[in-house]
Every structure is written in C-alpha cells, then in structure tokens.
Design brief:
By secondary structure, this protein is an alpha/beta fold. 44% of the residues lie in helices and 16% in strands. It is globular. The structure holds BIS(adenosine)-5'-pentaphosphate.
Length: 216
C-alpha cells in the first residue's frame, strides 16, 4: 500500500509543524517543509533568478514570501524522492498551487483554522531547538528544563521572524496570498477543516481521524 500524500495548510503559528511531527511518526511519511528548507539555505545565491534580493534571508526576516521560482524548485526536488509526505508551507499563493497540481496528486488536504489573536501569542512565544528543530512555547508547551530541548538536549532559541513586527507582516501576507489557496481547495473530498484553536492533543485527535478517513 502506498503512503499518503498529505497537504497541511494554515496561517503562520497555526500548528503545522507541531502536527506534522505527529503525522510523520504515525503514518511513516516524509516531512517536506519549505520553511525549514529555506532556513537551511538562507544565504543561497539566487541573484541569477532576477529577484529583488540576492538571498532568501532578506525576504524571510521581513516575513515576505521568497520568490516562487526558488520555492517551486525546492518542492519539486523533495517530492520526487518522497514515498508519502506531509507538505508544510507550500503552496502559499495561487501560482504555487497551480505548480503543485503539475507535480503530484493529493490524498488529504488539512486546514488548521486558528483565530488571528491566538496566532501572534503562539509565534512570539515559540522557542525552537537549534539542533533537532523541535518546537516549544514559553507558556503552552514548556520543556522540562528552561532553554533545553527535551528530545536532544540542544539549546532553544527564538526564530528571527518571530518578532512582533515580522509576525504582523507574515499574518498580512497570509491573508492576502494564502487564504485564496485555502478557498481553492475547499469543497474537495480530500479537504478537511480542523479547529486549530484547541489544545495540541485535541487538534492531533482530529487530524489523525481526518487522515484515516481519507487515506486508503
Ligand atoms: P514557515 O517556516 O513555513 O513558517 P510559517 O508558515 O510562518 O509557519 P510557522 O512555522 O511559523 O508555524 P506553524 O504553523 O508550523 O506553527 P508551529 O507548529 O511552529 O515559513 C517561514 C518563511 O519562509 C516565510 O515567512 C517565507 O519567507 C518563507 N517561505 C516558506 N514557504 C514559502 C513558500 N511556499 N513561498 C514563499 N516563501 C516561503 O506552532 C507555533 C507555536 O504554537 C509553537 O510554539 C507551538 O508549540 C505552539 N502551538 C502549536 N499548536 C498549538 C496549540 N494547539 N495550542 C497552543 N499552542 C500551540
């Protein structure tokens, strides 16, 4: 039986990374995340692509989208070698959604729906392990020892784009560019809206049930 092709959509801070970790562990798929791929290549030279800036860093630190040409190539390469995946962070605009339709088919499309007021609190309080990238939160998901990752003992830090100013821009960019993507998928049999305002375990219970109901 082939492993499912899962797309997870949601605003910055909706819990896509948190839920993707559970999906990977339970369904044995690969986590394909444009955010992590770009953070690992922030200083890649993209000057030959006729872009406004010469590296992804400038776009990311302001909370703007990295040009489609760069991101499309990353996703196409990652999906071509994945036996089942959860795709997180892509597509973020309608042009990317059209590109994705050319690359693959989807079995499950999840939308984690979270109120904007909750998102800012989650993002500015997030802490991430510098080594294994596990997410924590200063109030909602604390490690056993402050500043130290439970999984690998690595140091926890705040992402450059989790400042209040960058977060506000990321949420505006989401509303303008990515809400139309969600509307594009809504109504399909593969689509499931999940109440992402709930506690993480309750969100996971709904995510798991939605995948099991759609993936064969
Ligand atoms: P990316 O890394 O994809 O960031 P994002 O979409 O902004 O999403 P986040 O990772 O911030 O949030 P999340 O939904 O994963 O939430 P998490 O689980 O961590 O993208 C970063 C940048 O890269 C973009 O701004 C752009 O510049 C560029 N980029 C990426 N993809 C691109 C693309 N396709 N095109 C162009 N540019 C692209 O949870 C957040 C916090 O909340 C954590 O602290 C967590 O512990 C906590 N939490 C999670 N769930 C709950 C819950 N249910 N209750 C309470 N707290 C919770």
């Amino acid at each position: 039986m082939s492993k499912p092709h899962i797309l997870i959509l949601g605003a910055p801070g909706a819990g896509k990374g948190t839920q993707s970790k559970h999906i990977v562990e339970t369904f044995g798929v690969e986590h394909v995340t444009t955010g992590d791929a770009l953070r690992g290549n922030k200083d890649m030279d993209i000057s030959d692509m006729d872009t406004e800036y010469d590296t992804p860093r400038e776009y990311m630190e302001q909370g703007d989208l990295v040009p489609d040409e760069v991101v499309n190539a990353i996703v196409e390469e990652a999906l071509s070698s994945a036996d089942g995946y959860v795709l997180d962070g892509y597509p973020r605009n309608l042009e990317q959604a059209e590109e994705l339709a050319e690359m693959t088919d989807l079995d499950v499309i999840l939308h984690l729906d979270v109120d904007r007021s909750e998102l800012t609190d989650r993002l500015t309080g997030r802490r991430v392990c510098t080594e294994c990238k596990t997410n924590y939160h200063v109030k909602y998901n604390q490690p056993e020892e402050a500043g130290v990752c439970d999984e690998c003992g690595g140091d926890l830090h705040q992402r450059d784009d989790d400042t209040e100013e960058a977060v506000a821009n990321r949420l505006d960019v989401f509303e303008e560019n990515t809400v139309p993507v969600i509307e594009f998928y809504e109504g399909r049999d593969e689509f499931a809206a999940i109440d992402g305002n709930q506690a993480p375990d309750a969100v996971w219970a709904d995510v798991k049930a939605a995948i099991e109901a759609r993936a064969e």
